[in-house]
Sequence to fold (279 residues):
Amino acid sequence: MAKLIGGVTTSHIPAIGNAINDGLTQEHYWKRFFDGYGPVKQWLVEKQPDVLIVVYNDHGLNFFLDKVPTFAIGCADEYHNADEGWGLKPVAPFAGDAEFSWHLAESLIGQNFDMCTCQEMKVDHGFVNPLRVLFGDHERWPFKAIPLAVNTVQHPIPSARRCYNLGQGLGKAIASYPEDLKVVIVGTGGLSHQLQGERAGIIDVEYDLACIESVISNPDWLADQSNAEIIRKAGTEGVEVIMWLVMRGALNEKARVLHKHYHAPISNTGAGVLLLENC
Fold:
C-alpha cells in the first residue's frame, strides 16, 4: 500500500532559483533563508520518498488567464520546465508516475472533486524551486514527482476550506493505492506578499506566524477564513497559503511537527518552512 509519510511547506518565489544559480545561498541576504531547510533536507535523505506530490499554482507557463482550471493534476511520465521570463535556466526534466497519477485523479473525481487531468504539462518555478531548495540540482532527480496545480491567480479561486477538503480526499486516494510507495506532499507558496498596487510589499509577520501554527495544530482556523480575509491580511499573492492546507488535509490529524522556520523579508515575502510527519 502507498503510505503518506509526511508533508512539507515552502515558498516558491522565482528569486530562490536565481540565488541557487548565482551561488548566493550562503550570502548574508540569503543564508538564514536557505539554512532554514537543513532539517527538512536531512529528513528527506533519511526517508528517501518514492514520489513527491507538489501542490503549486501555475504562473502562466502551462495555463494562461484565458483557461485556468481550479484544480489540475499531471498524469504524465515526464515533466519539463522552461524559462518564464525570470532568467531561470531550465533544469533536468522530472520523472512522473502516470499510473499513480491516474489513480489519484480517478479517486478524487469519485470524491466529487472536478480535476483537470493533464497528460502533457509544463511546470514553472512554483513547482521547480521547492524541489531545488529541498534536493539541490540533479541530472536525474532521485524521486518521481506529480504536479497538482491550484488556481490562486485568476478569480474566482477555491476557498481555503475547499483546499483543505481536497487534501483530505488526496490522503484517502493515496492510502487506497495498492503499490508500495513512500509519498511526501509539498505545499508551496506564501506566506504574506503582494506584488502590485498600493500595498505592494506588504508583510504581516504576526499573521504569517498564526498561519504556521494553524497548519500545525488547528487547520480549521485558516480553513474557515474567506479568501477576502486572507488577502486583507496577507496580500493578493499571500492567498497562496491555501495550498498549504491541501498538504495538511492529506495528513493525519495528529501529524507531528519536526521542524518549523520563518524568515522575512526575502524578496518582499514572508517565507515559512514546515516539516510534518505522519503518525
